[in-house]
Automatic annotation (TrEMBL):
PANTHER family: ENDONUCLEASE/EXONUCLEASE/PHOSPHATASE FAMILY PROTEIN (AFU_ORTHOLOGUE AFUA_3G09210), ENDONUCLEASE_EXONUCLEASE_PHOSPHATASE FAMILY PROTEIN (AFU_ORTHOLOGUE AFUA_3G09210)
Region (Disordered): 304-331
Protein name stated in the entry: Endonuclease/exonuclease/phosphatase family protein
Gene Ontology molecular functions: endonuclease activity
Classification via Gene3D superfamilies: Endonuclease/exonuclease/phosphatase (3.60.10.10)
Key words of the record: Endonuclease, Hydrolase, Nuclease
Pfam families: Exo_endo_phos (PF03372)
Amino acid sequence: MTTLSVMTWNLENLFQPGGSSGPKTEADFTQKLETLATAISKLDPDVLAVQEVGQPAAFADLIQQLNGRYAHTQLSSQPDARGIRVGFLSKLPIEESEDIVAFSPSGLPSVPSIDRDGNLDESTRLSRGALRIRVTPQPGLAVHLLTAHLKSKLLSFPSRTGQARFTTRDETERARIAGIALLQRTAEAVTLRIKATEILERNPDAALILLGDLNDVTDAATTQILQGAPGSEIGTGGFNRPDRGDATRLFNLAGLIAEERRFSRVFKGNNELIDHIFASAALLPGQPRRLPMVDSQIDVIGAMPSIDDDPNERRGKAGSDHAPITARFEL
């Protein structure tokens, strides 16, 4: 039986040395590359979605460190203001790709944003472009993979100096920025959901996997938007009862991760699952549905670090502050 294994991993600031986000020394960068490549090689997914890739040259360095394991790669051309973007590494040929940047005009075409002076502005695009690719793991089955890195829950406050502020004593400012961040993440989730619907309606014989750093937990409204029609989630009575919603429904695979491992980040000592893999019904065939093997690889590079509101505290650290999430499907 043919299998397809996929993985999503936020690589945490994969920048070459120098700049405000990269490691300070070449030795730190080399150690990071070696740590990431060792983990990827151990887990060995067929297709890997990555987030927080800095310069394309840093991505090329990681590919080289993997010694030809992934012959096919695609990197988003739409980073955020800090220069981080999403990408794919694949053992399977990438047959087509698509950058997804603008908010869907049929969803939320614009939401409020804020400029560096603290004035209200308008956002009409994802903070970091999403990316779609298509692969064919077995004849007759095209699989579309869509990765994204949604707006962070970590708040960044306006600064005229260009240096990000991660704290404020102004509670009105805090509430305002938190609300704007939530609106941005919501519009991004709506855009992805509409894109998923378009793909599945246009390609009824294809499968779809949506995976990435969605920056909120399983029960969050923005995460649940991505599922589509409710009532058939994994673990519910409706899961093994096919219905008309299956044509465009996405199933969040989080419930298949062992409960004690069901997290991908530790924030202020609290475990959170904010990295997710969703799959369409074509990847869960049969009656009852055939389930993939899903895990959060929380120990692949040692104990997970606990982070706080200031991401600069981990500058130059090896590995990542996120755990990879893996899924293995029998097709």
